[in-house]
Amino acid sequence: MQTTVIDTDYGHLSRLADQAADGAYLFAEHTVEAGRATPYRTHPRDHRSFVVIAGRVRLETPTETRTYGRLGGWHALPGCVHRIVNVGAEPAVLIEAGSVLGETREMTEPEGATDCHCPDISDYTVHKPWGGEVWYTHNLPGVPYALKRIRMTEGHQSSLQSHRQKLETNYVIEGEATVLTGATAPDDLSAVIDLERLTTTVHRPRTGWTNPPGELHRVIARTDYTSIEVSTPELDDVIRWQDDAGRGHGRIDSEHAGGRS
């Protein structure tokens, strides 16, 4: 992942979605220094989702304020005016993801702002043989992106998989993972995959990678690890070429039993 870092009045902004994801979704990391606040922002055509990964912040809109700590977050709906204030003694770090259909406007005061509401991110949980996922955007049906938190326990690995349509970018926030990528999936679903064809990289916190459609990939947990993933919305688009639990392709309904909305 090649990031672009921009200095700001409140700290800095790192653009996380590399060139493969241009135009598909926004994925960025904001660092808000102690005692600082972002400008008020609004994006009339876009949904945006925010997740705190370090520190403590206050979300301010013209009608409400709420405080969030690590792994808490919210959705900013189209047209909503909002800003983020660091209320802790250390820098606060947040992930922002969302659609990129139109412009984002900034202002020093919420002039002319209309009433708006920023719902909390969803805690819908999907259980996996290797850990689990929290689908943050499960309560935003129909949006053109998906945001989730992935947790894998040490010594486990995901299936060797590919996607027909889904484009995804992962960003590690805790632990270490080995990632296998770099080869195109064959057309023949019965083909045997030679893992020696794949490139191996190790990712630690504040690093990540993008998997375009059709690319073979697998994640192996070197330690317990957590990542934030943004993708296009095709969450059930999974071809499993190898799987330690013997799962087939696509959605596994039993993994969603007991999921919270």
From TrEMBL:
<protein>
    <recommendedName>
        <fullName>Cupin</fullName>
    </recommendedName>
</protein>
<dbReference type="InterPro" id="IPR011051">
    <property type="entry name" value="RmlC_Cupin_sf"/>
</dbReference>
<dbReference type="InterPro" id="IPR014710">
    <property type="entry name" value="RmlC-like_jellyroll"/>
</dbReference>
